[in-house]
Design brief:
Layout (H helix, E strand, L loop, with lengths): L1 H4 L3 H6 L2 H43 L1 H48 L1 H6 L3 H45 L1
Helix pairs in contact: 3-4, 4-6
């Protein structure tokens, strides 16, 4: 908060207040999400890989090594796919911030818009921003399902390979 208040006048005149609030809110949400991801996903996956490798290697060393290498390959593939996805997450975040900022400013300046007869122009501008957000969000959504599909294929092939 101290750093935010210390910004220059130019910063506040060039950025919508709704956009600033939305960005700060996202920053807090992202920090919480990263902590959850490290604890629950990466930690759990690391423990699972170690336990699975040890148990399988006790039965058959080659089976343990194969599963270990397979799991490491899955991690690298998912890392690549998620780095690709992060570009779209950033685009969705920016588009969503533009929607929030425009909506906030429309409410803040509602009286001015009404007295100047600019309702249709505001609606058109807002519709363009929402359409852009929807386009980017839809692309991000399909990428999520693509990652889920690839991960499912990896897991199914590992299960089938383990059975054989």
């Amino acid at each position: 908060m101290t750093r935010m208040i210390g910004q220059s006048n130019r910063f506040f005149t060039q950025n919508f207040s709704g956009s600033i609030v939305r960005t700060l809110s996202r920053l807090v949400d992202t920090a919480e999400h990263l902590l959850d991801m490290f604890i629950y996903q990466i930690g759990r996956m690391t423990i699972s890989i170690i336990v699975m490798t040890v148990i399988l290697a006790r039965e058959n060393i080659w089976l343990g090594v194969t599963v270990f290498v397979w799991m490491i390959a899955v991690i690298f593939v998912k890392r690549y796919l998620w780095s690709y996805k992060m570009r779209y997450n950033e685009k969705v975040s920016k588009a969503s911030t533009r929607v929030s900022a425009r909506l906030s400013d429309a409410f803040t300046n509602a009286l001015t818009v009404l007295t100047c007869g600019m309702q249709l122009a505001e609606i058109r501008a807002f519709r363009l921003i929402v359409d852009d957000w929807y386009r980017v969000w839809t692309k991000s959504w399909w990428i999520d399902y693509g990652i889920f599909f690839v991960t499912t294929l990896f897991i199914m092939s590992l299960q089938i390979g383990t059975i054989f």
